[in-house]
Design a protein that fits this description.
Layout: H1 7-23, H2 28-35, H3 39-46, H4 54-63, H5 68-90
Length: 91
């Protein structure tokens, strides 16, 4: 993972992709096929080991039956909740 990437953001994105994939009843392989991506790339996204390009974000949103804006907003909500919980645990 590159130093300038935000690990909290990667975890929030990973959790959102996995939750939406699970809710859609898709395997990683099926989602990858729908998005014209490699299954191992989907796995790395879901583990928070990599971040998507803008093109990949649009492909993922389409494969998850969402708009890119809906996917980004859902990730932002997860990130805010996680950061709030982290601050509470630290206090």
């Amino acid at each position: 993972m590159r130093a300038h990437q935000d690990p909290d953001l990667l975890r929030a994105f990973a959790a959102e992709v996995r939750a939406r994939r699970d809710a859609a009843g898709l395997s990683q392989e099926a989602l990858a096929f729908q998005c014209s991506l490699n299954r191992t790339f989907i796995a790395k996204l879901e583990l928070g080991q990599t971040s998507p390009s803008l093109t990949t974000l649009f492909r993922l949103a389409d494969g998850l039956s969402a708009t890119p804006a809906q996917l980004v907003e859902a990730v932002a909500v997860r990130l805010r909740k996680e950061r709030t919980a982290s601050r509470r645990r630290a206090a």
